[in-house]
Amino acid sequence: MTPEQIEMVSSTWKQVLPISDKAAELFYGRLFEIAPEVKPLFKSNMEEQGKKLMQMINTAVNNIEHVDKIIPALQDLGKRHVGYGVSEDHYTMVAEALLWTLEQGLGDAFTEEVKAAWTETYMTLAGVMIEAAKEAA
Questions:
Q1: Domain range annotation of the chain
Q2: Which of the two ends of the chain, N or C, has the fewest CB atoms closer than 10 A to its terminal CB?
Q3: Rounded to an integer, what distance in angstroms lies between the CA atom of residue 106 and that of residue 116?
Q4: What DSSP designation does 133 have?
Q5: How far apart are the first and last CA of the chain?
Q6: pLDDT tens-digit readout, 17-50
Q7: Which long-range contacts (CB under 8 A, 24 or more apart) does 40-47 make?
Q8: How many angstroms from the chain centroid is the CA of residue 107?
Q9: What is the C-alpha separation between 121 and 44, in angstroms, rounded?
């Protein structure tokens, strides 16, 4: 990622943080709309699940310049997701729901450049999780 992309992701995430509960609600609403087959994979309280999602994204964004620091946590998360029934295809659906959610929350600030920066971020992090999931399977 370029320094400009890192800055875009960091600055736009700061805009999302104050509405993180709503963002989580939007995210899961969109995910279940585009991929209703994943809804049964979520067995816990969705409000709690949303908080976990927002915390994970926050951790990732806060460590975006030093991704190597969070690789072990991402690998562990990827391995755990295998046990939840998550497949590699699900990561694409999550990307779509995440980008849509960011667009809703950021409005006009969600430019093509911001979208590209978030896509690069997500693909980098998801790639680590997917590789770990493959090893665990």
A1: 3-136
A2: C
A3: 14
A4: H
A5: 29
A6: 999 999 999 999 999 999 999 999 998 899 999 9
A7: 41/84, 41/85, 41/86, 47/21
A8: 18
A9: 27
